[in-house]
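Shipment paperwork, digital attachment
Item: protein structure file
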Amino acid sequence: MFTKLLIFGAMNTAAFMFSQSTINDTISRDKTIDEVVITGNSNPKASIKTSTSISTLKMKDIENAAPRTTAEIFRTIPGIRSESSGGEGNSNITVRGVPVSAGGSRYLLIQEDGLPVMQFGDIAFGTQDQFTRFDSFVSRVEALRGGSASVFASNSPAGIINFITKTGEKEGGSITQQMGLNYKNYRTDFDYGTKIGDDTYMAVGGFYRIGDGPRKTGFNSNNGGQFRVSLLKKFEKGSFRVYAKVLDDRTAAYMPMPVGVTGTDSDPKWSSLPNYNILTGALQTIHLQHDRTLGNDGNIFNTDVSDGMHSMSKVIGAEFNYNLGEGWKFEEKIRYAANDGQFVAPFPASVSKGSDFFNATNFANFGSAVYAGTNTPIDMNANYMKIALFNVKLNNFNNFVNDFNISKKWDIVKFNAGLYKSSQNINMSWMWNNYLQEVSDKNARLIDVKTTSGQYITDNGLLNYGMKDWGNLKRDYNTKYDITAPHAQVEINATEKLTIDAGARYDIGKVSGYFSGATVTYTSLDMNGNGVIDTPEQMVGSNDNINVPVNYRYGIFGYSVGANYALSNKNAVFARVSQGGSASADRILFSGYNYTNNDDPALDAVKVNKVNQVEAGYKLRGSGYFLNTTFFYAGTKEANYEATTQRKTENKYQSFGVELDGYYKITQGLDIKAGLTYTHAEIKNAIDPTIIGNMPRRTPKLMYSVNPNFNVSKFNVGFYLIGATKAFTQDNNKLLMPGYAIVNPYVSYQVLKNLSVSLNANNVFNTIAVTEAEEGSIAGGNGIVRARTLPGASYSVSVKFDL
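Attachment content:
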C-alpha cells in the first residue's frame, strides 16, 4: 500500500496543475508577509511560498473579536462556518459549503500542536471543541482550508484548525483578569516562559473561571479551568519537547429553545415568547438540578444537572526532530490523552400552549396540571415543554496519536514520507429521562399532571424514566477505532515561477467493540425509594444488555495535486484538485447494518464519507494591501443517523463558490481586513427524493466579516462585523432563518508599559441570529419553533499585566 502511495504521487507530479499558495496575512496585522507557517506543510516555510490555504490568528486578533467560546474564534476566518450557539462545546463547524448534516465537524479537525484533539470531529455528545480551550498559553491559531488537508490529516478532508502553544523561547508572560459586566463571568488567564538552562526553555500557563456565562441558567454553570506546561531542549541538529495539559471544566450546553415565529415560511418573523428571552434565556433551571435514572449497569445513576458539559482531559505529549545531514530530516510527534466527562442538557422534545399540551390526547385520563411541589393549577394560556434530558456519561474517550515523518531536500525537490498511527475510544452511556417544564427563562418550574381521580402520573415533573417517545434511548457504546495511515508529499520547483506539489494518503481503519440498547426494554422499579411503584416507575427504561458486535475495516484514499505560477512578484494564479474522506464513527451505529460483515454493500456504502474538491484562483499583493480570490468546488457523499429526529440519511451534496480575503492599510494608524464567502450548494441525491435539488439545511449563500481597526499611540479601537445571509432550517427548503449581522466593538488603552485595559462587546445590538432549527416549516404548527440563536449583547472588561 505504501508503494502505491509513492507511485501515485510521482505520476501526478508530472501533471501541470496549479496550486494555491494563499498568503492570508491579513488575519494578523503584526504578521509579516514571510511569516513561517507549519500547519499542513511537510516542511515549515514562509506563507508566501506554501501551496496551501492558511490563515493565522494571533492573540490580539482573538482578544479583539471577543469570543465567548472556542468555536466563536473561527467566525472571522474566510470559508469557515462556525455555528457557535451551543456554548463551549457541541458546535457545528464546516468549510466552503461542505455540509453539516448532523452535529459537530465531520470534515474538519481541531489540532493542538499538530495532532488532533479527537480523531473524529462529530462524535455525538463528545465533540472536539468540548476538549479544547483557548487561553493565553496559545501562541497563535493556524487554519488550513481546502482539499490539501486530505493528505495532512486523517478524517479532515476539508480543513484543519491548529492551536499552536508557547514553548518558553520568548521570555516573559502575562496575567489577565476578565470580568463580565452584564453577565456573571470571572476568568483569570496566565502564562510565563523562560530560559532555564543552556538552550533549555520552560513555559507554563492556563486559566480558571467561574460564572453563569452569557445565558442565565440560575446557577454557576461555568466552573473550571486548564493548566499546561512545556519543556523544550534545543541542540545543534534538532530539538526535543515534552508537554502536558490538564483540563477540568464545567460549562452549560445550550440546546434549541422555544422561539416564536409568525408570518410565512418564506417571510417569517422570529421573536421571543412571553417569559422567555431567546437572547439571554436558557432551558436550565434551579428546579431541575438533580436527575435520577436507571444506569445501563442496572444500578441507579444520580446526576447533578448543573455539571452540564463536564470535560476532563489529561494529556502528555512529545515532539522530536533531528537533522540527519545531506538534506535528510527526521520528525516525530506523539501524544496520549485520557478523556472523559459528562454531557447533561435539557432539550425541548415538544412545545405548545397549555390548553393544547395538557389534555386527554397527550395524557390518558388527564385531570389537571399543577406546578410541581404545589397544588397551584398551571396557567393554561402559558407555554410548556416536554423536556428530553440528554444525560450522557462519557466513560472513555481516550486517544493515542503518533506521526512519524522523514524528509529529504534536493536542489529543486522536497520529499516527505511518513506513517500516522492513532486509536480513539468511544465509550459512552446514554441515560435520558422525560420531564415537563414551563417555558420561562427565570427559574422555570416543573409541572406535575394528575388523572381525573387525582392520582399523579408524574413525579416532581418527571414523566418517564427513559425517552419513551424516541424508543427509550438507553444506549451503551464501547468501540475502538484504530487508524494506520502512510502518507507522502513531494514539491518541485519546476521553474523559477512554477511550483508543483502532490501528496497522497491512505487510511487503513479497523473498528472493534460492541454496543447495546438497540431494542426497547422496560422494567418496574422503585426509583425514588418510597416503597411504592409510582406511575412513572411502572415503565422504567432500561438497557436491553444485548451486545451487538462491531468488527469491520475501511480504507480512505486521499490525494491532493496542484501548482502555483507567479505572474510577477506581485500576483500569481493557482489551482488544486483533491480527494479525501472522513470515516463514520458512532453516528452509524444503531442504524441496523451488519457491523461484522466487511462484504456487506449496505455497510460499505456508509462507513466512509467522501469529498472531492477543486480550487482555483488569483492572488494579488502590494505594499500595505493584499487580496486573495479562491474559486472552489466540493462534492460530498455521506451517511448519517440523527438521534433527535430518528432519521437515517444517505445523501450526495455539491457546492461551489468563491472566497475573498483582503487587507488594506489606509494610513499609518488605520487599516481594515475583510473576508467573504459565497456558496451555492445543492443536494444531488438522497433517500428522500423530495429534497433532491434543494439547498442543504443551514447553508447561507453569503458569509462575511469586516474589521476596521484604528491604532494610535496607546489607544486601539475597532469592531468586528460578522454576518450571514438567510438559509433554510431543513433540507425541505421551506422555513427560512433570517440573515444577520452582529457587531463586536472593542477598545483598549495602554495605561503603563506593562499594564493595559480592554473593553469588549459581543453582539452589541442584540441581533437575533438563528443558527439552526428543528422544524422545517411553520405551516400547520403552533407558531413555536425550536431553534438555537447566538447570545445577545454581552460586555466584558479585561486588565492585562505583562510579566
